């Protein structure tokens, strides 16, 4: 049986971790809520780049790296692929399919923050669902805009922005109420492909609200890619 290092990040990683025995390692980048029902080992914290990750792999005699990090965590995915290559072991990845626009959607893809700021100019009440990145730009909010920023935790805001701390999954009824109460006229989102956060897109479609979608990064090539947990678990079972 191969010893697996599971790099977590997306919700599906926890479902995988629950199937792993005590010889395997579930690795989380930051301190979070780790369920008490896991039988695998849990490691919290970074590695110091691909070289540090490779050192850990060798020291712990890992024989398979399984990358289940967020689709926008390109650097972590690159480190995983490079560490696996340096250690001569395979790297597999669970990669969610991207959301696809539906009839009635008004999606506008932006490549980076500069493009996003330009695309935001016609709007007054944006809802950011990008995580913590907009927090770095609170002093740049135009006078005619008021931002609503949703992140996993509550962070300090200012008179031009309110930060909401909330974790999915989100109910469509609650998303409708949020859009209505905040008078949201544009949604800013990553294309995470997560069912837990998809209801916001449905509400934007219902209300005719444009969606500024941050372009997905190109991820490192790996030995095998999976788009769903069941197929990945079947592959693990025959290792």
Which structural traits does this protein have?
239 residues, alpha/beta, Rossmann fold, 2 domains, six-stranded parallel β-sheet, 12 strands
Question: Can you describe this structure?
Answer:
By secondary structure, the chain is an alpha/beta fold. 29% of the residues lie in helices and 21% in strands. The protein has a six-stranded parallel β-sheet with strand order 3-2-1-4-5-12, with helices on both faces. Strands 6-11-10-7-8-9 form a six-stranded parallel β-sheet, sandwiched between helices. Strand 10, helix 6 and strand 11 form a beta-alpha-beta unit. The mean pLDDT is 93.
Sum this structure up briefly:
This is Cobalt-precorrin-6X reductase. Helix 5 crosses helix 6. The chain is of the alpha/beta class.
Structural class of the secondary elements?
A: alpha/beta
CATH architecture descriptor name of the largest domain: 3-Layer(aba) Sandwich
Extract low-pLDDT stretches: none
What would CATH call the class of the largest domain? Alpha Beta
Strand order of the largest sheet: 3-2-1-4-5-12
Order of helices and strands: EHEEHEHEEHEEEHEHEEH
Q: Specify the helix fraction band.
A: 25-40%
Rg measurement, Å: 20 Å
Count of the domains: 2
Count of separate DSSP helical elements = 7
CATH superfamily of the largest domain: NAD(P)-binding Rossmann-like Domain
Specify the overall morphology.
elongated
* CA(first)-CA(last) distance: 6 Å
